[in-house]
């Protein structure tokens, strides 16, 4: 579940996450270097689209949907990739080629993907338990409602990622990453909540959020 502090992980977000060819193919061959003068739209067409789709509506749950994602969230995620600050080491390996992005390219990529039609919801049947957690939380476990930070329809705001329509499997993976975080070092709400979630509740709320937006 992506909650307030998840802006540093998704990782909705959001680790966020225009993976390169090496990440999509599973090979160790590095794609051609892009330079600081490469226009962002060329990066989208030549690199980002290979995993995330031309408009950010990825097909594989391995790679997050970026279409309609919050602009500020995308900027944070790309900046974290640039600075090797992501928790998801596998994603960092996929994104090795983006460590040389300029501030201008980061802004252009964020503008492009945030301006696309918001990610389309998945077709699973709504999960009743997931809806309860999203809207009311789990008071007995000190779990706040996801909607508190992500909005009533999961639209996100600013550096808090949009979760509506995101791949359920991707969100579950981000929750597991947060559960592995050291709470002494990460005191953000997302990490605290992830540690309190059971595996079943994580699956339920992810399935519910994946259905939002239809």
UniProtKB/TrEMBL annotation:
Annotated binding of heme c 2, by residue: 146, 149-150
The UniProt record lists the keyword DNA-binding: no
Keywords from the UniProt entry: Electron transport, Heme, Iron, Metal-binding, Periplasm, Transport
Chain residues that bind heme c 1: 48, 51-52, 95
Gene3D superfamilies: Cytochrome c-like domain (1.10.760.10)
InterPro entries named in the record: Cyt_c-like_dom, Cyt_c-like_dom_sf, Cytochrome_c4-like, Cytochrome_c_Oxidase_Subunit
SUPFAM superfamilies: Cytochrome c
Domain of life from the UniProt record: Bacteria
Domain annotation Cytochrome c: ranges: 34-117, 125-213
Gene Ontology terms for molecular function: electron transfer activity; heme binding; iron ion binding
Localization of this protein: Periplasm
Main location, first listed in the record: periplasm
GO cellular component: periplasmic space
Protein modification: Binds 2 heme c groups covalently per subunit.
Protein name: C-type cytochrome
Organism annotation: Pseudomonas corrugata
Taxonomic placement: Bacteria, Pseudomonadati, Pseudomonadota, Gammaproteobacteria, Pseudomonadales
């Amino acid at each position: 579940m992506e909650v307030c502090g998840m802006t540093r992980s998704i990782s909705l977000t959001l680790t966020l996450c225009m993976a390169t060819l090496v990440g999509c193919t599973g090979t160790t061959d590095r794609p051609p270097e892009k330079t600081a003068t490469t226009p962002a739209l060329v990066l989208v067409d030549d690199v980002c689209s290979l995993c995330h789709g031309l408009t950010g509506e990825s097909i594989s749950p391995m790679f997050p949907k970026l279409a309609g994602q919050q602009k500020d969230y995308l900027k944070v995620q790309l900046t974290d990739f640039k600075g090797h600050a992501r928790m998801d080491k596998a994603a960092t390996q996929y994104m090795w080629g983006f460590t040389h992005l300029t501030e201008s390219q980061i802004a252009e990529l964020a503008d492009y993907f945030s301006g696309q039609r918001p990610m389309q919801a998945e077709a699973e049947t709504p999960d009743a338990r997931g809806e309860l957690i999203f809207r009311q939380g789990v008071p007995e476990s000190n779990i706040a409602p996801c909607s508190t930070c992500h909005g009533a329809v999961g639209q996100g705001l600013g550096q808090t990622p949009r979760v509506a329509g995101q791949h359920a499997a991707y969100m579950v993976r981000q929750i597991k990453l947060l559960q592995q975080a050291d709470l002494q070092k990460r005191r953000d709400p997302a990490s605290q909540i992830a540690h309190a979630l059971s595996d079943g509740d994580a699956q339920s709320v992810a399935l519910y959020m994946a259905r939002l937006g239809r």
